[in-house]
Design goal:
There is one protein chain. The protein has 216 residues and is α/β, with parallel strands linked by helices. The chain is built from 8 helices and 5 strands. It has a 5-stranded mixed beta sheet with strand order 2-1-3-4-5, sandwiched between helices. Helix 5 packs across helix 6. The protein starts with 13 loop residues before the first helix and ends in a 5-residue tail after the last strand. The structure holds zinc ion.
Length: 216
């Protein structure tokens, strides 16, 4: 893998962006994070505009702040956070803005172990638990991802499988949008799924939950 940690050159391609995220997460895990610190000169430069190299759709969970997890600075990541990292009109609109106007080459759907939203969706599906109206709507967004899960599995395994399934489904749904499909087919963008591990701080990228120009 390319070592991009020693240079300030912004990543230009999806693969470079992915390598940058992976290197940042490694620094974070190893206690060698460089951020959050920001020079006044950087703020001044950024006040003129942004050119983030990756768009992250993550969960609102307080334990998974993308900039810290990837040891990324101001202006590097375009971040959307919503419980359960689900899609919805506002999220899709934000993603479309990112595709059209920011042109980040890399899109990451970042789920995480122990996700409360996925846990609630599992309880809703398999135990029939119910929630307040808007929460129920959120859980319905996750529910279709839970097809094929084994409700008899131990709770930890079930949740883990649910988290991963939810990430995969969101990646699939995103790719199903014609705009993403076209941009991925022409190799302009790459979509990747990933799961953050709460206890280790590691981000596990899901190689088979990815789509780019090399896809069949
Ligand atoms: Zn969560």
């Amino acid at each position: 893998m390319m070592d991009l940690t020693r240079t300030d050159m912004p990543p230009r391609t999806a693969d470079e962006a992915l390598a940058r995220l992976q290197a940042g997460n490694l620094r974070f895990v190893n206690g060698e994070a460089r951020f959050p610190t920001v020079q006044k000169a950087v703020l001044a430069e950024l006040s003129r505009g942004q050119q983030p190299y990756a768009t992250i759709l993550g969960c609102s969970d307080s334990r998974v702040p993308p900039e810290l997890v990837f040891d990324a600075g101001f202006g590097e990541l375009f971040v959307i956070r919503v419980a359960g990292n689900v899609l919805g009109p506002a999220v899709l609109g934000t993603l479309q803005y990112s595709v059209r106007h920011l042109q980040t080459p890399l899109f990451v759907v970042l789920g995480h172990e122990g996700c409360g939203a996925v846990k609630a969706a599992i309880a809703s599906r398999f135990d029939g638990s119910r929630h307040a109206g808007k929460i129920e709507m959120l859980l319905e967004q996750i529910d279709p991802a839970l097809d094929g899960l084994d409700p008899q599995a131990p709770p930890d395994e079930l949740l883990s499988a649910g988290v991963e399934a939810n990430v995969r489904r969101v990646v699939r749904d995103l790719l199903a949008t014609t705009e993403a499909q076209a941009r991925a087919d022409e190799g302009a963008i790459k979509l990747v799924g990933a799961v953050y591990e709460l206890d280790s701080g590691r981000v596990r990228f899901l190689p088979d939950a990815a789509a780019d120009g090399t896809r069949r």
